[in-house]
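The material for today's practical consists of a large collection of protein records. An example says more than a description, so a record of this kind follows:
***
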Amino acid sequence: MTDLNNTMQLVAALSDRAKARDLALALGGTLFADQRPGAVNPDLPFAALVTCATDNLPALIAAADIGVYLACERKFKARKHVTAGEQAGVVGIFAMVANPDLGARGADDHWRDVHAPLALQVHEAMTHYRQLSVLHCFHGPDWHGFALCGFDSLVDLREHFFATPDGRAAIMADIAILADVKKSPRRVIATETLR
């Protein structure tokens, strides 16, 4: 396996965007927040994720009402232009529950070794791609990973997620191999803010 610049991250999932913003600021973390106006959609699995490398696990556990995870961040395609503050574009966040036929380890191996190369090929408009492979759940839903799929615009994410119909079919078939598609929650569309 090639070096993907893997890093260990704590990941907090919250239902409150303002609380998530404050947490990211306090811990020097990265905020991924649903930015649609109005109230948070109750059908979403979370309103915001905070990722950070910190020794202040109690602060994350106290703030994160949905879940806290230890994850290995794998960078398959890096963002080209990174500055402090809110980043351009949007990120589709897909929380994944492993297919029970593969188990968590087998699903993660498939996600890393088979699905990631396929995603890079099929999602031509995707500008950056990372996986947060969950190694431990401190509390919250039994999610096994988060795919962070970045695009220049919401239009690109919604209308150009798949380069071709065949590519869409290949991705959907592969997801059915690695994930429990009935238990995996719907995607969250977020903006990314670096502290």
